[in-house]
Amino acid sequence: MFRFHSRFRLATLLLATPFIFSACKKDKAEPKPDEENEQITTVTYTLTPPPGGGSPVTATWRDTDGPGGNNPTISGLTLAANTTYTGAISLSDETKSPVADITAEVRAESDEHLFVYESTPASLLAITRTDRDVRNLEVGLATRVVTSAAGTGRLKITLRHQPGTKNGTATPGDTDVEVTFEVTVR
């Protein structure tokens, strides 16, 4: 009788072992990297001319109710021809109280973010990202913008979120925000 019970217990234990370890594995939650895109309701791009070249010029895109709600409010840029500007972009989330400064978050996670600047026509503005992350890859919170002769066009600014995939190009990752400003160069 003792042998039967011992064998039965041993067999039961051996059969149950995979399920016990399997259950343990299921109970352990896999850590998930924080890869959520930032919520951005306001993008402000400020271009400062050289000393004596006039006042800073600011373009703002604001969409406080998010996609699908009211259309965003957008102001454009009017710039001087053949001028070099220093650019600074700021981001915020106005759905939070107090307003969340997303610029600080992007700066802190600069190794996961890249701003892409596209001028149409391409000859209207030459834009260079002047800041870099810890791996010496460009970020784009700071820029140098050189205008051409007089003309009109558009400037599209895209913030790419690239956790673990940033390689200096716009290809990997997701888009946090994409805005387009009308541009006049006089």
Task: Please characterize this protein's 3D structure.
Keywords: Signal. Residues 1-25 form the signal peptide. The protein has a single domain (42-185), classed as Immunoglobulin-like. It has two helices and eleven strands. It has helices spanning 2-27, 102-108, and strands at residues 42-48, 57-62, 73-74, 77-79, 84-93, 100-101, 113-120, 125-129, 142-147, 151-161, 174-185. The strands form two sheets. Strands 1, 2, 3, 5, 6, 8 and 9 form a seven-stranded antiparallel beta sheet that branches. Strand 1 (42-48) and strand 2 (57-62) form a beta hairpin.
Summarize, please.
It comes from Hymenobacter montanus. This protein is 18% helix and 39% strand.
Q: Could you name the key traits of this structure?
A:
single chain; 186 residues; alpha+beta; Immunoglobulin-like; seven-stranded antiparallel beta sheet; four-stranded mixed beta sheet; 2 helices; disordered N terminus; signal; Type 1 periplasmic binding fold superfamily protein
Topology-level CATH name? Immunoglobulin-like
CATH architecture: Sandwich
End-to-end span in angstroms? 101 Å
Please tell me how large the radius of gyration is.
Answer: 26 Å
Quickly name the level 1 CATH class.
Mainly Beta
Assign the structural class, choosing from mainly alpha, mainly beta, alpha/beta, alpha+beta, or little secondary structure.
Answer: alpha+beta
Q: Any idea how many domains?
A: 1
- Helical run tally: 2
- The SSE string, one letter per element, is HEEEEEEHEEEEE
Q: What would the principal axes of the Cα set say about the shape?
A: globular
| Structure summary, number of beta strands | 11
The profile of the biggest β sheet is: 7 strands, antiparallel
Protein name: Type 1 periplasmic binding fold superfamily protein
Keywords: Signal
Signal peptide: 1-25
